[in-house]
Amino acid sequence: MAGEVVPYDVLVAFCSDPTTCTIVPLGSGNINDTYLVRSKSHSFVLQRINKDVFPKPLRVIENFQKITNHLSCKSAGAGSPLQAAVPVLTLEKRLFYLDSKGDFWRGQSYLPHESYKVLADPKQAFRVGKTLATFHRLVSDLDVQGFLDPLPGFHNLPGYLEDYDRVMLDIKIAADVDVHSCMATIDRYRQQAATLEHAKFAGILTLQPIHGDPKVDNFLFGDQGEVLGLLDLDTVAMGLVHYDLGDCLRSCCNRVGEAGGTIQPVKFDMVFCQALLDGYFVEPGKLLSKEQRNYIFDGVLLICFELGVRFFTDHLRGNPYFKVRQDGENLLRAVNQFRLVDDIAKREREIRTMSITSGVE
Question: Is CATH 1.10.3300.10 what the domain over 122-357 is classified as, yes or no?
């Protein structure tokens, strides 16, 4: 039966016999409310889209249908199909249900899989890199006519810094060592914030469809550690591949994860970095030129810095964006990301060399 977390009318919209359904929270995402619904006939994922994060939920819903249709067609002809969820319609054959509070609920197919917060070994990093490259190839010719950006400015670091500056003008800064540490880190790196945007405007880097959030726990793993596909296609939009590759490296090479429960020693694992880049560039086809590869370091540094800025700004605002279990969690997340930024900066020469030489015979 539906508990208080899922209104009964929502369940009725998707299930012919709600009395046979069981509902459990699914995953640990920071944004939407997601549940696994099991009935006698089938299992599916039910999700309430967070309107505070996605102010136009219908864009997310319609984009998802277009993306999954494209991936299904492309994967069917591929040697190793990429798994991705597809829409589950309401009983009235609609893509969503709008409840009495104005919340959008949508269904997706459930793909049984293993999920990781931290990768087990470099072999998994290699597979993740290869899967991300496959995804980029499959969506490279996605028809974006009528495809609306679900989160305009999602990877606009200069924009996040402007937002941070506005917040700083309106609040009283606490006498907290972690708060002042975050402020100092932002001051150290803000001059580099527009590096990728400048390269885009110069024509060095070009736009294409990207995932937008390819962190470790958005990859589907099999029970043998193989990578089956990708979850969470809500942030797919036109962007720079470097944002995706940078975010994937940030997530996979941080061996302690990004959770904010405690401050742990943070470092960027170069063995996992090499493995992931080798996987990304192992397949034939020229994904990036040598000049474009040189910006991979900037991608991983700046996406990590961006996330730290976002966590810290959200903390200063009172946590309206990222879900927290307790006050101060977003501050600890920011501290961990900024420590990772410092460690990545120390490894600049090595990361640039790996980025240029990986997969080159």
Answer: no
